Amino acid sequence: ASPTTLKVLGSAGLPASTARDGRAERAMPAKPLLKRPAGAAEMAARKRPAASEAPRPGPCGHQALCVVGEALIDFLPRTTKDGESCYLPKAGGSPFNVCIAARRLGLPVHFFGGLSTDLFGEELFAHLAREGVGLELVQRVSRPSTLAFVGKAAAGADVKYAFFKENSADRCLTRDHAAQVSQAHTFGAVHLSLGAVTLEDAQMAEAFSTLFRQSRSMGAFTCFDPNIRANMIETGHEAYCKTLEGFIALADIVKASDADIEFLCGEQAKLEDVAERWLDCGPRLVVVTRGPDGAIAFYRPADSTLASCSAAPPTRPPCTIDASGRAVPVADTVGAGDTCTGGLLYGLLGGGGAASLAPQLAGGAAWDAAAVLRLQDVLAAAVAAAAINVSRPGCDPPSAKELATALATTASTGSCD
């Protein structure tokens, strides 16, 4: 994105209804809404595919990744030499970031979404092109680009956002376009991250579900990140949770942050209980990112019990690692989860010539010992990629070479001041 520093004197000139803080308010329900099923019959019913979904043929063998969703401009908080607050515009949005993260590691990646023809949309399009992301699925429209102002956050804390998104370009996808894309292209995986766009947008939700259903019928596995921005949700907590859980049934992987789970299920929710609930809905893998504590993956081996593996970052806050594997201070946490997701998808698709886990995700193959060992390696590499990302301002995922160097290097245990 443009390196120009933009001073923002206030938001008085912007529509107040569009400025929403993504994490500032978490109106928790009195009790968790995502409970475990009451009995075996309900569990069995949840595991059955929807009647409208075609039988799955098994993994297609392709490595290409399709990422669907928004692309926007993040305005990152900075301070001028004179001590004044200002904002630096950077290309972003969760799906956009996942595209960059996976592409830099070496996956063939295609972005499916709407981009404006305004100056911000031109920059987003050019940025994706420079990174080598496929753009043949992009819809160019005259609507404005979404803008997201990022608040300052303590090390390891969730970033806060204010979105300006009314009638934006990233809300132009339709069911028909999604059907055309899934019929004309074969992908190894399809990933959706929400954010400023939520499942409350009926047109977008219909497009997303169509893409997921038809891509699964073509041999792709699907990955879904709810990426909760609480104040983007207008229909109410309970209604949105039900909508979200319905969509989870179309995903083979659910990737969520611990903050997402706190919003959906309450502060006291146990990750194991939430993962088991989601696995009962149909996914084959649930991955929860936990900020400075790394990530944990839940799955069911052949005996159908709940099992997990986890990966921790190479260092602890306030340290992280840079691309050389050296301990350095955390710059900010923008895009950390998206970088982890990109690394996860790269590994699951067999990036770098390693074994693919598509048979477990799209073909119903068992999580045997070899698959679990592979999953552990994939998770560790994804967490390391996120650790490198937070050593740099904004979302700036590592290349495959940088990640390999960092993984091969023992990070310093000294001070990162």
From TrEMBL:
This is Carbohydrate kinase PfkB domain-containing protein. SUPFAM superfamilies: Ribokinase-like. InterPro entries: Carboh/pur_kinase_PfkB_CS, PfkB_Carbo_kinase, PfkB_dom, Ribokinase-like. Gene3D superfamilies: 3.40.1190.20. It holds the Pfam family PfkB. One of its GO terms (molecular function) is ATP binding. Residues 1-57 are annotated as: Disordered. It comes from Zooxanthella nutricula. Residues 65-398 form the Carbohydrate kinase PfkB domain. Keywords: ATP-binding, Kinase, Nucleotide-binding, Transferase. Belongs to the carbohydrate kinase PfkB family.
